[in-house]
Design goal:
Length: 616
C-alpha cells in the first residue's frame, strides 16, 4: 500500500479510553520528506512503528472534559468554585449556557457558579434543561425531542404572551361610552369589551394550526395556559356578544383548542410518550371554576387501546369490556368520533368504521344518530351491498325512514351501477352536495332487479318524503321500464297481476315485500314493472302527484303497462277525474310537445274502489 503520509497513534491501554471525553484528532501534517522517514531493515520488520507525531488539536468541549485543567465534580455546589474548576482553556464551554466559558457572565458568581456544572449531576442537568427548553420545559420535553419546529413554537409562545398581556391589560382598563360613539348626557361609565383579546387569540390559533403537527399541539395548549386565567371585570355596561364576555369567550376558545389537539393526537403520528406529555400538561392547567368541567376533555383513547382494537377488529360487538370488577365502556366525545371517522375514511377502513359507529357512545346522542345513518354508505364503499341494505332497515330507527328524496336517488344509483363517489363525510347531507366523480366500487356487483325493487318499495313504505316525491317514482320506473320495450303479457296474466300486486303491497306480510317466485316465472321483467306500476296506482289514488308527466313518460316504451295503470285508477271515479285534470294542466303548461299521449278511459258509474290505498 502506498504511503499516504497520514500518522495514526494507537494506544494499547484500554483504561485510557473514556467514551465521555471530548474527541481529540490529529490533523494530517504536511508531507514528511522521504529522507526523514528512512527506516532500517530491523524497523521494517516490526508490526507497528511510530515514525512521526505531533500534539493533538483540542476541539471545543465542556469544562468538565477539559484535557488541560483537571475538574473536580460535586453534586450541587454553587457558592464558589471548587478546587480549580474556574480555570479554562480556549475551547472550554459552559455546560449550562452552552457557549464559551469565557462568555459566561456567572462563571464564578457566588450562588450560581456555572464553573462547577457537569452532566453527571441531576441538579445541574435540570438547570441546563430548563434554560435551554425555555417555555417548553412545562411540557416535560427532553432536549432530544426538541427540533427546529418546536424551537420556533417556543419563540412564538413568548411573543404571544407578551402581546396577550398588553391586550388583557387594555381590556381591564375599559373604554368610555364616548369611545363607542355613545353621546348621551348625564350618562357615564365604562364598557369592558373582551372582543379584541378574543380576536387576537383566535388569530394566533389560526397561525398555530398551520405549523408542524407537534408544534401546533404545543402552541394551542401553551395559548390555553394563558387565556384561561383571564377574568371578568364588572362594569356599568355589558355587551351582548358572546366574545365580549371573557367567561363565554374562554369556553369557545378552549373548545377550539381541545378540538385541534384531539385531531392532531388522533390523525398524526405522535408517540404515546408525546401524547402523554400533552395530556399531563393540560391536566395541570389552573382551571377556573367555570371551566373545571373541561379538565378531562383532552383524554383520548389511543389507537392501540385494548377495547378500541377489539371493536375495530370485530371481536367486540357491544363496546363493553369487563376485566375483574371493572367495566370499560367505549364512550368518547363527539369531536373525537368525528376525528376517528375522518382518519378511517381516508385510510378506506370502512368496515372497521361501521363496527366503531355501531357501538360507540357519546353524550351528543342526536348527532351520533346522524353519523350512524352513514353506515349504509360506508358498507356500499366496502362493496357489501347486502349489508348496506340490512343497515338501511334495522328493526329500530331505520335510516331509510328519514331518507330525503335526494338520498333515495343517491342509493338507487349506487345499487344500480355499482359505482359511488369517494367522499369523506360526517353527516348525511354531505352525500348529495359534492361534485366528486363516481367510480366503480371494488368487488361490488349491481343488485338484481328484484332486490332493487324491494329496496325502493320498502323505502317508500318507511319514508313519507320519498313516497310523495314524483322524481323518486320517475327514477324507479326508469329502471323497471327497461330501454327496450317489453312484450305485453297475456290478458290472463294482467288480470291476475292486480290481485298479486295488491297482496304483495297490502297483504298481512307486506312489511317484508315478499315477491312470489311464481309471479316472476312467466314474465320476470313484466312482473316487476307491474309491481312498481301497482304501487304507483296506489300512490295516485292517495292524492295528487306533481309533476306527474315525468313519471308517466317512463311508460313510452310499454304502453300496455300504462293502460293497466289506467284500468286500476278507474276504481275511483272522483280520483280518476281529478288525475285526468292534473295531466291536462301539465300537458297544457308543457305546450303539448314531446309528451306521451295520455288518454285515461272513463271509469264506469258503478265501479267500486278495489283497494284502500297504499299508505306510507
Amino acid at each position: 500500500m502506498a504511503d499516504s503520509g497520514e500518522v495514526i497513534i494507537l494506544s494499547d491501554d484500554d483504561d485510557d479510553c473514556d467514551d465521555d471525553l471530548s474527541c481529540l484528532i490529529l490533523e494530517e501534517e504536511e508531507e514528511v520528506k522521504k529522507a526523514d522517514c528512512a527506516l532500517s531493515q530491523s524497523c521494517l520488520d516490526e508490526d507497528l512503528v511510530v515514525t512521526y507525531s505531533r500534539s493533538a488539536e483540542v476541539l471545543p468541549h465542556a469544562r468538565y472534559d477539559c484535557p488541560i485543567h483537571p475538574f473536580m465534580a460535586t453534586d450541587r455546589e454553587t457558592a464558589s468554585p471548587v478546587a480549580s474548576n474556574q480555570l479554562i482553556c480556549d475551547q472550554c464551554f459552559c455546560y449550562i449556557c452552552d457557549k464559551l466559558a469565557s462568555s459566561c457572565v456567572v462563571w464564578t458568581c457566588s450562588g450560581v457558579c456555572h464553573c462547577n456544572s457537569h452532566k453527571r449531576s441531576g441538579f445541574w442537568s435540570n438547570i441546563r434543561n430548563n434554560l435551554l427548553l425555555g417555555g417548553l420545559a412545562a411540557f416535560n420535553l427532553t432536549l432530544l425531542e426538541i427540533d427546529s419546529h418546536l424551537r420556533q413554537a417556543e419563540a412564538m409562545l413568548q411573543s404571544f404572551r407578551q402581546e396577550l398581556s398588553v391586550k388583557f391589560i387594555s381590556f381591564t382598563k375599559g373604554r368610555t361610552l364616548q369611545e363607542y360613539g355613545v353621546t348621551q348626557e348625564n350618562v357615564q361609565g365604562l364598557i369592558y369589551d373582551y372582543t379584541p383579546v378574543y380576536e387576537f387569540v383566535s388569530s394566533f390559533l389560526n397561525k398555530a394550526d398551520k405549523q408542524d403537527s407537534r408544534a401546533a399541539a404545543v402552541l394551542n395548549l401553551g395559548a390555553a395556559e394563558d387565556f384561561i386565567r383571564h377574568f371578568q371585570v364588572s362594569g356599568n355596561f355589558i355587551l351582548q356578544s358572546p366574545i365580549a364576555d371573557p367567561a363565554q369567550a374562554k369556553i369557545l376558545l378552549l373548545q377550539r383548542v381541545i378540538a385541534s389537539v384531539q385531531r392532531l393526537m388522533l390523525t398524526m403520528d405522535f408517540t404515546p410518550e408525546f401524547i402523554n406529555k400533552l395530556q399531563n400538561f393540560y391536566k395541570k392547567l389552573h382551571f377556573p371554576s367555570d371551566l373545571k368541567n373541561m379538565r378531562n376533555s383532552l383524554f383520548v383513547r389511543p389507537w392501540n387501546d385494548v377495547l378500541l382494537v377489539s371493536v375495530l377488529k370485530g371481536q367486540n360487538v357491544s363496546g363493553v369490556r369487563k376485566e375483574r370488577k371493572k367495566k370499560d365502556v367505549l364512550t368518547e366525545s363527539f369531536t373525537v368520533i368525528l376525528h376517528r371517522m375522518d382518519l378511517l375514511q381516508r385510510q378506506r377502513r370502512y368496515r372497521e368504521l361501521c363496527r366503531y359507529l355501531r357501538v360507540v357512545q357519546t353524550d351528543a346522542s342526536k348527532l351520533l344518530q346522524q353519523v350512524q345513518d352513514l353506515i349504509p354508505y360506508f358498507m356500499c364503499l366496502e362493496g357489501d351491498f347486502t349489508s348496506a341494505l340490512t343497515c338501511l332497515f334495522p328493526s329500530v330507527r331505520a335510516p331509510a325512514s328519514h331518507l330525503s328524496p335526494r338520498h333515495f336517488v343517491f342509493y338507487l344509483r349506487i345499487f344500480t351501477t355499482a359505482t359511488a363517489p369517494r367522499l369523506v363525510v360526517t353527516q348525511p347531507a354531505q352525500l348529495c352536495l359534492s361534485n366528486v366523480a363516481w367510480e366503480p366500487v371494488k368487488d361490488a356487483v349491481p343488485l338484481k332487479s328484484t332486490e332493487l325493487v324491494r329496496f325502493a318499495l320498502k323505502v317508500q313504505r318507511n319514508c313519507p318524503a320519498v313516497y310523495a316525491d314524483s322524481h323518486c317514482w320517475a327514477c324507479l320506473l326508469a329502471i323497471v321500464n327497461v330501454p327496450c320495450s317489453l312484450p305485453a303479457p297475456s290478458p290472463h296474466f294482467l288480470q291476475e297481476a292486480l290481485d298479486v300486486v295488491n297482496a304483495v303491497l297490502l297483504g298481512e306480510h307486506s312489511a317484508n315485500l315478499l315477491i312470489p317466485r311464481s309471479f316472476q316465472e312467466a314474465y320476470p321483467d313484466q312482473a316487476l314493472l307491474l309491481l312498481v306500476t301497482g304501487a304507483l296506482r296506489l300512490r295516485i289514488l292517495s292524492g295528487p302527484l306533481s309533476p306527474v308527466l315525468p313519471v308517466l313518460n317512463t311508460f313510452k316504451e310499454n304502453v300496455w303497462a300504462f293502460k293497466w295503470l289506467c284500468d286500476g285508477l278507474s276504481s275511483s271515479k272522483e280520483r280518476h277525474d281529478s288525475f285526468a285534470e292534473e295531466i291536462k294542466r301539465e300537458v297544457e303548461n308543457a305546450g303539448g310537445e314531446n309528451v306521451f299521449p295520455y288518454i285515461l278511459p272513463a271509469p264506469s258509474e258503478d265501479c267500486e274502489q278495489r283497494s284502500p290505498g297504499y299508505q306510507a
